[in-house]
Amino acid sequence: MSGSDLISLDPCTGETVWEGPAGDVAAAVAAARAAFPAWARTSLDERIAHVRAFQKVVQDRAEPFARLIARETGKPFWETKTEVASVAAKVDISIQAQAERAGQRTGEVGGVRQTLRHKPHGVLGVLGPYNFPAHLPNGHIVPALLAGNTVVFKPSELTPAVGAFMIDCWVASGLPEGVITLVQGGGDTGRALAGADLDGLLFTGSPHTGAALARQFAETPHRILALEMGGNNPLIVWDAGDLDAAAALIVQSAYLSAGQRCTGARRLILGPDGDAVLDRVTALIDRIIVGAPFDEPQPFMGPVIDGRAADRLQAGFSDLISRGGEVLRPLFRHDQRPLLTPGLIDVTRVAGRADEEFFGPLLQVIRVPDFDAAIAEANATRFGLSAGLIGGDAALYDRFWHETRAGVVNWNRPTNGAASNAPFGGVGLSGNHRPSAYYAADYVAFPVASLEADAAAGTIATGLRG
Q: CATH for 234-411?
């Protein structure tokens, strides 16, 4: 194999899941560019029929699709089945969103017909992440195709098999050639795609890569750039009545998907009832099953994506300990595999904590004396994706909602609970004000406002010589 070949490994077994060469960016973009005029001219009804055909293929292939995601990411099989269901459900949600947010509107102003329509941008690149390698890029792709764009999709280099499977589903659905093209590759391929002859780029991934893309696009304001990134997300627990329920919400927020959700809780902010809350949380952590995707009984969480991710998390955990963090539950690694136990560390006394996203099962505890300090701590971040409050009354939540800077704000629910029929995005380093999910319809097309009459009629009343 050449140095440009990709190999995807099962994080639990080390077995090869997929291997193949890096793709040709120029050829993929050229194919998408050639297919764009005809696709943009198809009727919306035709495009809806195509995405519904894709939905049917996904539903028919749900079992092997979920098994492949589980093998390539290590996520439990129960969870990957929900991801595939989300891929199929995205079609109906996107059709509804397109009609509501980008549909045609006709009215009248001054006796003249006024019409609002939307046009596709053209060729859009989609860069997918590894944590939800089907659902998250699909959240860009389906709205983009409905709007009349053609798409060049580069999956994460860690999950190429899932990307190839999803494109196979589009091919099997009868989508015209070139409307969606696949280009596999690593960081170099991603940078090449971002710099190619695109009309826009839709990205889900790390803040570091997102910032690099923003710099790359700084001199091309005519190209749309939608960034969906991570967060150093706070979860405040205050006057929680049912501490067992609170503990369950905390564990779900921090450790679902082995902590590899961009909306996962990274900082647990506790008030006067902190000791009682932690007693429940640690008891629940001790019951969590960590294992391989198809183990029985099914695990709550699997591994992180690979050994490098595990190494980074362990290094971050060790650094917090060296600076005075109190270990409540260790971030323990099972042999050489990237299977980590859920880590919990009290960093209240750690000065100058880094404002970074630990993308894995690592939760930091911070104790505060009052709710003013809790809000201040929640907002002590450059990120702003999700934030949660467990406990309190409606008045306290109202204050929390108004004073917290985040795009997803939940009350008595996990921080990583988000509905596909709502906008999804954040502020600060978490995004560039291009929320996805239901609002993806906004960035995959641009509005065209028209004043129209069936016949020419006009006079000039002032400023002409007789």
A: 3.40.309.10
